[in-house]
Amino acid sequence: MAPRSRHRRRKDLDGIHHDGTLAAAHQLACTLIKLERYAEVKSLTLPIIRQRPLEASVRIAYAKALYKAEAASRDELLEAGAILCDVLPKNRQILGPSHPLTLGILSDLERVSMMLEDRPRAT
Q1: CA count, 13 A, side-chain hemisphere, 75
Q2: Domain 3-118 part of CATH 1.20.58
Q3: Tens digit of each residue's pLDDT (9 = 90 or more) over 52-84
Q4: N or C: which end of the chain has fewer CB within 10 A?
C-alpha cells in the first residue's frame, strides 16, 4: 500500500492522534522529502506538530522540508536549525551519539549552518 493511502486510511480508522497514524504520517513525509515535495511535507507535518509538539520524528521531517526547499528563507533556516537543536539532545541520550539518526540530525544541522553562512542577513 502506498504511503499516502496508508496514512489516509490510518487517519480515517484510528484518528490523527493514534501512534499508527503518526507512523504512517512520518513514512509519508520521508517519501515526500525524497521526492523533493517540501510544501506537501510542511502541510502534512505542521498540523501534527501543533497537536503533538513533542513528536520528534515529525518535527525532524518538518525541519528538513524547511531547509531543503530551494527558496528557503533565512527565517526558515533558523527555524529548521532550532528544531534540530531541540531534538538532538534527547535523541543523543536515548539512541546514543553514534546512532544513524543522531548522526543524521548532526549532518542536517551542519548543512543548515553552512546555508546560513551563505545567506546574508537582512539589513
Answers
A1: 1
A2: no
A3: 888 899 999 999 999 999 989 999 999 999 999
A4: C
Looking up cell 525532524, which residue turns up?
60
- Any idea where the domains of the chain sit in the sequence? 3-118
Q: What is the DSSP string of 20-63?
A: HHHHHHHHHHHHHHHTT-HHHHHHHHHHHHHH-TT-HHHHHHHH
First to last CA, the chain: 50
Instruction: Report helix angle 19-34 to 38-51, nearest 10.
Output: 160
- Per residue in 90-107, pLDDT tens? 999 999 999 999 999 999
Would you say 7 and 47 are in contact if contact means Cβ atoms under 8 Å apart?
no
**Residue labelled with grid coordinates 500500500:** 1
Per-residue HEC secondary structure of 63-97 comes to HHHHHHCCCCCHHHHHHHHHHHHHHHHHHHHHHCC
Lookup result for grid cell 506538530: 49
